[in-house]
Amino acid sequence: MDFYENLFEFSENDKDKIKIDKNIDKNLEKIKEIFKYCDDVIYREFNVGKEQKLKFATIYVEGLADKNLVNEYVLKNLMVLSRMTKPDANIMREKIYELIKDGVLSVSDLKEIDDINLVVDNILTGETVLIIDKWDKAIVIASKGWPMRGVQEPETEVVIRGSREGFIETLRINTALVRRRIRDPKFKIKQMQIGSMSKTDVAVLFIEGLASKDILKQVVERLKKIDIDSILESGYIEQLIEDNYRSPFPQMQYTERPEKVAGALYEGRIAIIVDNTPFALIVPTTFNSLLQSIEDYNERFIIGNAIRILRYIAVTMSLILPGLYIAMTSFHPGMLPTVLALYIAGSRDGVPFPAFIEAFIMEMSLELLREAGIRLPSPIGATIGIVGGLVLGQAAVEAGIVSSLMVIVVAITAIAAYSTPNYSFAIGFRILRFAFMAAAAFLGLYGLMLAFVITLTHLCNLKSFGVPYLSPFDIYNINFKNFRDTFIKAPLCKMKKTPNIINGRDKY
């Protein structure tokens, strides 16, 4: 057994196996008892043959199975079989699967099962199960067909130049969107179920030969260890398998863009796609990858780098600007030019609060406006964000609660924070901003530097599935070729091969 076969070998279902009986009435009785009070489960019983009658039954869930497929290609064809006057009973018993598969049902996928628990599981996933009297097995007919949203443009990752396709809530559609971009048999998709009650389908995507076997083993083993009733969104998986849940920084990257997943797989990363959610997870992730946009690679070298550098500057400003204002106005006004110092003093004249309280009030107001804008319907949310910010800022200045310069600082901070491509990453910086403000309020610039050093130390110790979070800035494993896609991006003609940050192989 090779590495991949051993890795993806799953233990049998923990439930006790309930063998299918040769008596169809006993089987139906067991299934109906399990699905008691489940009015959406449809049973269709009929007989084959007029003289030697053989009883058949189909079972499916209305709304999960494609009713047209069941009626046209399953029931209709079985009804043709039922018109046989004298079916050979021995053939019907011994070769029923071959008869049904080759001569009756014109559907794409059929399989045999011999366990009532598997019958129940398949029915609940949208398949149709065919049970036949005097036969101790059942036939599972592929018939999934629930209502689904069409492939649309991603709403959370808008780009000017790039694909307009985004993931939806159906796992197999999402894997197909990635497969279209990686037409290579080395691209592997392995599926498992997680959640004792929800039995959510989870797919692990990787490219054999590029993905690190050590990282792949960590990912699969952590997924196997998950013991939970339900998985309703990919965020559950993220929280259950991340390295350090106490860190404000995300150790996995999420996206709803299939080309971003494909690009990550080409780099040797691993993707996790969860059914019922349009967001895929990418592991491992690094500090730099969270500040990169898919559009950086679609634009020319100079334009892409200009945007990326601007993004790094904006993130730095969003983190330290309020704290820097507090430190300079409260502890180090002498470091400012005289004209600027006098202007700040004049703008704060009459403000009853110290700079920290002033900044705290404005930052909290901004966070409340941002949260309200997200929770309200889109047209109202946008209006609340713009009008609320203008009215609140103007009223606060006129009331003398905050200075006009503080409003400008908070506004610049908010605009800078919006430039972060990853929402979870931006939230981490928003939390740390308050810590930096508190440090500046106690120790001025010294406190600001202390907070920066503590944050940097935390980032140095943080790992994502064994990969240092600050890669490739790892003093123990420096390879300057990996610097071609960090703060700036090298021309595409210099980046024709996959990087070795993840898999440890020099492919440049």
Structure explained in plain terms:
- With 508 residues, the protein is an alpha+beta fold.
- The protein folds into 3 domains: 14-141, no CATH class; 171-285, no CATH class; 297-468, no CATH class.
- 46% of the residues lie in helices and 12% in strands.
- The protein is built from 18 helices and 12 strands.
- The protein has helices spanning 3-7, 24-34, 67-82, 89-94, 96-104, 116-124, 171-179, 213-224, 234-241, 258-266, 295-298, 301-330, 338-347, 355-375, 378-398, 404-417, 423-443, 445-461, and strands at residues 41-48, 54-61, 110-113, 128-132, 138-141, 187-194, 200-207, 253-255, 270-274, 280-283, 463-464, 467-468.
- The strands form 3 sheets. It has a 5-stranded antiparallel β-sheet with strand order 1-2-4-5-3, sandwiched between helices.
- α12 (301-330) packs antiparallel against α16 (404-417), α14 (355-375) runs antiparallel to α15 (378-398) and α14 (355-375) packs antiparallel against α17 (423-443).
- The radius of gyration is 30 Å and the shape is elongated.
- Mean pLDDT is 85; it is low at 504-508.
- This is Spore germination protein.
- Belongs to the GerABKA family.
- One of its GO terms (biological process) is spore germination.
- Keywords: Membrane, Transmembrane, Transmembrane helix.
Order of helices and strands: HHEEHHHEHEEHEEHHEHEEHHHHHHHHEE
Note the overall shape: elongated
User: How many helices?
Assistant: 18
Total count of strands:
12
Radius of gyration: 30 Å
Briefly characterize the structure:
By secondary structure, the protein is α+β, with helices and mostly antiparallel strands. It has helices spanning 3-7, 24-34, 67-82, 89-94, 96-104, 116-124, 171-179, 213-224, 234-241, 258-266, 295-298, 301-330, 338-347, 355-375, 378-398, 404-417, 423-443, 445-461; strands spanning 41-48, 54-61, 110-113, 128-132, 138-141, 187-194, 200-207, 253-255, 270-274, 280-283, 463-464, 467-468.
